[in-house]
Specification:
mainly alpha
Amino acid sequence: KMTLFKKLVVGFLFMNILIVGISFYSVSNLSNMDNSMSVMYDAHLKGVEYIKTAQANMNAVIRYRNNILLSSDNFQEVESNSKSMNEAISQFEESLQKFEETIVNDEVRKLFDDLTTVWKDFKAKEEKIVELASKGDFRDANIERISNRNLASHMESLIDKMVELKAQQSEEANNNSTITYERTRAITIIVCI
């Protein structure tokens, strides 16, 4: 036969086990929420920053190339813009490298691989344009510039798609975090009542 003392001890023991169990559940869910937020920041938001920086650098490459073509009569300006263009190319490639580290799914990976392929063609044509311009052949350089527009446009569309996917993935991570928080809060409230 259980005495009142034993019943109280068992009751308090049960409550302590329940509290410890809920605490572990809450800590586990908070850890999941922290991971979701880390993924959202490190993989998605930083990824958007890196790819948009790459896009700005690509636009700088185009601007410097256009400046080279417009300064056909000033060799110093051609050299200065060529140097700036090479720096923008390096910065583009550095931003791409940083972006690659943030890729977490196959769809973005495929777009990234397409972008790097198009970039190689674009870069080679841009270098040819600069080479022609530095030799004084601005007519052929301008012809190459016009033919390179499609590659630039294609790169812009690939970057836009990657940004869109990264934004969707960020929203998913945020939604998962919110669901985890609400579930943990609801269970804690139920136990407290």
